[in-house]
Write a structure and sequence with these properties.
With about 280 residues, the protein is an alpha+beta fold. It has a domain of about 180 residues: BirA Bifunctional Protein, domain 2 (2-Layer Sandwich), CATH 3.30.930.30. About 50% of the residues lie in helices and about 15% in strands. The strands form 2 sheets. Strands 1-3-5-4-2 form a 5-stranded antiparallel beta sheet, with helices on both faces. A hairpin with a 4-residue loop joins β6 and β7. α3 packs across α5 and α6 packs across α7. The longest helix has about 60 residues.
Length: about 280
């Protein structure tokens, strides 16, 4: 199992990959370097409910129901890739993915599920049978008493640490047999214990570095968004004050024209002194 987060713009391409849409040339849209066996594409299916609309439409609908920042870099979609274990009997594959869907839907809320496409048409040398469980990361904000979109809070360090074990426990119970989810070492062939440990340590370090960088990036993005919002508020306040000053000048000019002439004359003298000062400096 592995998880990725995507913005609204990036999710569109993923949706087409999930549902095996075709491009303008009639070729299936791929994600990465996956090789698709066209003779098996008809075997793919979506475990998620039929919403009566496509994934993008449901994403927009659900986003309209929950609070979220209006930012292009906001991650509005997460996708778990759940791969069938090598030792899973083919006759249990359908049961495995159905159980995996129930586990994920209960965990993240079925109302937030966008799709759960099972792909059985990718060549086994490069990709085992797997399910793309995509969902909107919605969490309840107790302070604001509302639901909001927050990928960094839904998929946090604690979630990444415990979900694999909990998924294995749930799936093993559902299938009534031990289930060991695929990990990076499964595809490496036979390794010595020392080699496996070294490989796992390296992968874990890379994951930790990625999580750290992702958290820093998300925090910076939040800070920037808040500062941009504050700047916008200050600009509006400045515009309001400028308008008040303009109206005050018009009122003074109408009621006290002589006073206004003196003010304008004094301002002109100040500008002249400023120009002379600049000229003296430039010499």
């Amino acid at each position: 199992m592995n998880i990725q987060k995507y913005t609204k713009e990036a999710s569109g391409h993923l949706f087409k990959h999930f549902e095996r849409a075709k491009d303008t040339h009639g070729n299936y849209i791929k994600f990465g370097n996956r090789d698709i066996d066209l003779s098996k594409t008809f075997l793919n299916y979506n475990v998620a409910p039929n919403r009566g609309m496509n994934q993008s439409e449901y994403l927009d609908k659900r986003l309209s129901e929950v609070y979220h920042l209006k930012r292009k870099d906001l991650n509005v979609m997460c996708s778990w890739v759940i791969t069938a274990p090598n030792d899973l009997p083919p006759e249990k594959r359908h049961q495995f993915f159905n159980a995996a869907y129930r586990f994920m839907a209960a965990r993240y809320g079925e109302e937030n599920v966008l799709s759960a496409y099972v792909h059985l048409d990718e060549n086994t040398e490069k990709g085992h049978a797997h399910m793309h469980f995509s969902f909107i990361p919605v969490i309840y904000d107790k302070k604001k008493n509302r639901y909001k979109v927050s990928a960094k809070e839904v998929i946090n360090k604690m979630e990444l640490q415990k979900i694999h074990k909990e998924a294995e426990t749930y799936l093993s119970k559902a299938l009534k047999s031990s289930v060991h989810l695929l990990n990076g070492t499964t595809k490496q062939g036979n390794k010595t214990i020392a080699e496996l440990k070294m490989f796992n340590d390296r992968i874990e370090k890379e994951r930790e570095d990625f999580r750290t960088l992702s958290k820093i990036t998300e925090n910076l993005a939040d800070d920037i968004a808040e500062k941009e919002q504050k700047i916008e508020e200050l600009k509006k306040e400045q515009d309001r004050l400028n308008e008040i000053c303009r109206k005050l000048r018009e009122l003074i000019k109408a009621l006290f024209p002589d006073v206004m002439k003196l003010i304008e004359k004094d301002r002109e003298k100040q500008r002249e002194r400023q120009r002379e000062k600049i000229l003296s400096i430039s010499r």
